[in-house]
Amino acid sequence: MAGLDKRVGSYEEALSGLTDGMTVLAGGFGLCGIPENLIAEIRRLGARDLTVVSNNCGVDGFGLGVLLEDRQIRKMIASYVGENALFEQQLLNGELEVELTPQGTLAEKLRAGGAGIPAFYTATGYGTPVAEGKEVREFSGRKYILEEAITGDFAIVKGWKADHFGNVIYRHTAQNFNPLAAAAGRITVVEVEEIVEPGELDPTQIHTPGIYVDRVIQGRFEKRIEKRTVSA
Questions:
Q1: What is the DSSP letter of 202?
Q2: b/e per residue 117-149 (b: at least 16 CB within 10 A)
Q3: What tens digit of pLDDT does each residue of 18-58 get?
Q4: Domain count, the chain
Q5: How many helices (H) and strands (E) does the chain have?
Q6: Quick one: average pLDDT of 176-182?
Q7: Is residue 130 part of a domain?
Q8: Is the pLDDT of residue 221 over 70?
Q9: pLDDT digits (tens, 9 = 90+) for 135-168
Q10: d(Cα 104, Cα 176) in Å, to the nearest integer?
């Protein structure tokens, strides 16, 4: 059983093997459920020319935004420019290659990649610039475009709890893109708030089975709030 233990003791070990030019899949939505410490470690390692796949690119100075500051991202595949002014600036200046993808399509491209499905047809984006250069077919009188699945060299994921074997539970909306990214990475690294003993997780509550996970690390999280709303 010891050979199944996925725990690692440092962030350097967690991202061992990450090199320039790789594709990194990052869970999270805005600042909710982002693997903030793994992102910080990528910055520390200084890997460059990365292709990053995530719903958006964090905010200025936090999350994936810190990788933009150091010009570590060559291409961003995302559904939303978001609240990151530097992301918008680099996009408009042509400094950053950006592939904007409808949010549901992005989720399905990751899900398909994790399931071993190379491509799928979707009506979303037909008749728009999203469809340019893509195969079109008609099913039951409706036009669909062919979208290719996404996989990555690394997937960096934020979970709530995990056991030694890499079984992961996410908490509420912090689940978002995390299980999709986890399944589509060649090497999947999960940072969690708590690592529990084997058998403590209810099998029916596990969102990402350990078969998809290569490394697990317990971290401390700032959990910034992107936009705070209060009532009188």
A1: -
A2: eeebbbebbeeeebbeeeeeeeeeeeebbebeb
A3: 999 999 999 999 899 999 999 999 999 999 999 999 999 99
A4: 1
A5: 6, 11
A6: 98
A7: no
A8: yes
A9: 999 999 999 999 999 999 999 999 999 999 999 9
A10: 12
Q: Coil, strand, or helix at residue 191?
A: strand
The boundaries of the domain holding residue 66 are 2-117+149-218
Q: How far is CA 126 from CA 3, 4, 55, in A?
A: 48, 45, 21
Q: Check which CATH number belongs to the domain holding 192 and give it.
A: 3.40.1080.10
Rounded to whole angstroms, the Cα distance separating 201 from 163 reads 7
Question: What pLDDT digit, counting tens, does each position of 79-100 carry?
Answer: 988 778 899 899 999 999 999 9
User: For residue 26, is it within any domain?
Assistant: yes
Q: Is the dihedral of CA 85, 74, 71, 9 positive or negative?
A: positive
Q: What is the pLDDT of residue 83?
A: 79
Residue 69 in tokens: 């500051």
Is residue 231 a part of any domain in this protein? no
Q: Is residue 123 part of a domain?
A: no
Rounded Cα distance, 46 and 63, in Å: 15
Two tokens at 70? Answer: 């150091």
